[in-house]
Design a protein that fits this description.
Elements: E1 6-11, H1 16-19, H2 36-52, E2 59-63, H3 67-80, E3 96-99, H4 115-128, H5 141-158, E4 167-172, H6 174-185, H7 189-194, E5 203-209, E6 214-217, H8 224-242
Parallel strand pairs: 1-4, 2-3, 2-4
Antiparallel strand pairs: 1-5, 5-6
Helix pairs in contact: 2-3, 5-6
Protein name: Histidine phosphatase superfamily clade-1
InterPro entries: His_Pase_superF_clade-1, His_PPase_superfam, PGM-Related
Organism: Penicillium fimorum
């Protein structure tokens, strides 16, 4: 069949760990389940996916083996194939689902330590750099990049199979979606670290350009640098309204977003296709 016309990355729905980080002190990360809101988000994602598809599309799902991603996949497929409120053109038996361990979440170690120690680790990670910082007893984003690279190569080989679907859906995690795109589009470490997570059950859509065989990312990604600019503008506007004539020596308000130390030369973080 050739390359799929569309690749869709989906971050899992809201999990119990997203509502309460302390749960990771007693429940292994791979066993954390969805909340009631998460199940609702997964069902809604299935309806949104149905609106994106054409009736003759063939689908392959690849899902991280974590409980929250498998439950998200199940919820998406349940509503996608439902005949309510109208008959679905996507019967369940026509959809193939593959459990793919290389799409699992970044390994944050085993049971996580207390909140105070985790907060210290997150601050150290932010200062050191999210891509290269290796979690104790876990892995770095760079480690995750290595296994995603292997998955991308496997996926690319599968494109050549006669029965491969023309729509490929990857149900994974926030950081892993960013790592996948970083590898796919050869983005720099600096640009990766500027990217913010997508929302739960948000779609990242790559569409095939048949003229050159390349995939175009349809989303405008959110970055920390854009958020800082927006908050600077917001704070400046508030100050201007409160005091149209700024006092001598005036300095703008901070945006309250932690800023890491810059190491070495400043590099331009521009994504490349």
């Amino acid at each position: 069949m050739g390359k799929p016309r569309m690749i869709i990355l989906v971050r899992h729905a809201q999990s119990e760990g997203n509502k309460n980080r302390d749960i990771h002190q007693t429940i292994p990360d791979h066993r954390v389940k969805l909340t009631a809101e998460g199940h609702r988000q997964a069902q809604d994602a299935g309806r949104r996916l149905r609106d994106l598809l054409q009736p003759d599309d063939k689908l392959h799902f690849f899902t991280s083996p974590y409980r929250r991603t498998r439950e998200t996949t199940e919820g998406i497929i349940e509503s996608l194939t439902s005949d309510t409120p109208s008959p679905s053109p996507f019967p369940r038996h026509t959809i193939k689902v593959y459990e793919e361990p290389r799409l699992r979440e970044q390994d944050f170690g085993n049971f996580q330590p207390c909140s105070r120690e985790m907060e210290r680790m997150w601050m150290e990670r932010a200062d050191y750099g999210h891509f290269f910082y290796r979690i104790p007893n876990g892995e770095s984003a760079a480690d995750a990049y290595d296994r995603v690279s292997g998955f991308n190569e496997s996926l690319w080989r599968q494109f050549g199979e006669d029965d491969f679907a023309n729509v490929c859906v990857l149900v994974t995690h926030g950081l892993m979606a960013r790592v996948f795109l970083m590898k796919w589009y050869h983005w720099s470490v600096e640009y990766f670290e500027d990217l913010r997570n997508i929302n739960h059950c948000e779609f990242l859509i790559l569409t095939l350009n048949p003229e050159n065989g390349k995939y175009t990312l349809q989303n405008k990604l959110r970055t920390w640098s854009d958020l800082r600019k927006d908050r600077d503008i917001e704070n400046a506007t508030k100050e201007e309204v409160a005091s149209p004539i700024p006092p001598a020596g005036h300095v703008g308000l901070t945006d309250h977003i932690p800023i890491r130390r810059k190491w070495g030369a400043v590099l331009t973080a521009v994504p490349t296709a």
